[in-house]
Amino acid sequence: MVEMLRELRIIVDEARPTDALFRTNHASNYLAIGGRLPRDRAAILATIDSAIAGEVTLRPEWARGL
User: Fold this and answer.
1) What pTM was computed for the model?
2) CA distances (Å), 41 to each of 12, 16, 53, 61, in order?
3) Which of 5, 30, 33, 36 has the fewest Cβ atoms nearer than 10 Å?
4) Residue 12 burial by Cβ neighbours in a 10 Å radius (0-12, 13-18, 19+)
């Protein structure tokens, strides 16, 4: 799980759109986040970092709709 969050962090950190809507709110995702890149990059990264640190509750398996 942590490895997937680290990969998501790399994607957000290195993406360079000029104005893009970014969301991970599909039912199958463990962490529902959203914002605009690049404007909200810092907030999105902070949320991912908090999830990696175990400070954010992730979506439980039973709720992922799989």
Assistant:
1) 0.91
2) 7, 10, 18, 27
3) 36
4) buried
Q: What is the pLDDT of residues 1-25, one digit of tens each?
A: 899 999 999 999 999 999 999 999 9
Length of the chain: 66
* CB burial of residue 45 (10 Å; 0-12, 13-18, 19+): middle
Question: What amino acid is encoded at 58 in this protein?
Answer: L
Q: How far apart are CA 50 and CA 43, in angstroms?
A: 11
Question: Going by C-beta distance under 8 Å and a sequence separation of 6 or more, which residues neighbour residue 37?
Answer: 12, 15, 17, 19, 20, 22, 44
